[in-house]
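Note to self: keep these together.
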Amino acid sequence: MRLASLIFLSFIFCFQFALAQSKARVLDPDTDVYSTPDFDANVIGTVDPEESFLVSKKPYGPFYKVKFKDGTIGYIPDTNLTIEGVGAVKEQPFKGDDLDKKNAKRAKREKVEEDENAEDDTENPNINYKGVTFSIINFHENTMGGNQVADLAAYGFRFQPMQGNYQSALAYDLMVATKPPDYYAEKTGAQTSGAVFWGSAGISNVSALNSNTSLRYGAGPFLRYSYFTIKNATLKPQSNYNLQDLTAGLDFQAGVMLHSRHVTIDLGLRYFWDKEGYGGFGVGFLF
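Structure:
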């Protein structure tokens, strides 16, 4: 009776062992078989793709437990196994992979925080901007018996350094209006020509609001030179009158600089403290 029980239990054990395992082969010739599921373990043999063996359904980290026909038990890396009815075994992660994933997530989160800090960082690098400007100057002049006013369209060049947030630097610009004020023709009834030149240099302060917007403000001396020619066609022979003027004063400026990848748009206001005070506004395209 005891012998029958042992035979029955042995049959049940073998049946369960068979259910828990499948047949498999290796993919590469001379694949190492390890004594334990560890790459530092002893190699107890090799196996070729022609030989089939039993393999456990449960992985042991990156290994599977195998049993050969001669009863030898060992471990083979999952990357070298193909199981009948299943195919090549999907590579199992190491235990340290979970930690690597956590570290990767932490690094990604830190990178996002760094990017956000970079966006909030208002410290602009040292850059020298320069480019073209267009301005409308509400020109005032005391001439022809009174204070005359006219709008002049002026084109120019501007140099605007940015030495960092809340830093001061020397900026300068040049402008020219290629048409005389309208009041000369209106008052004289004659043909007029000429131009007005402005040249200014001064201390410009920059305050960055964010990575895309900066405020600038400053003041400095300027020179203005104008020459006008009045052609009186009613007189015989025709008479030409040349009017020239050179003045100096102070130029007060303030503006907003909108930074993009390729160009900075400068929107500015200015006030000229000249013989007669007058102001203007303009836009610049700086690179």
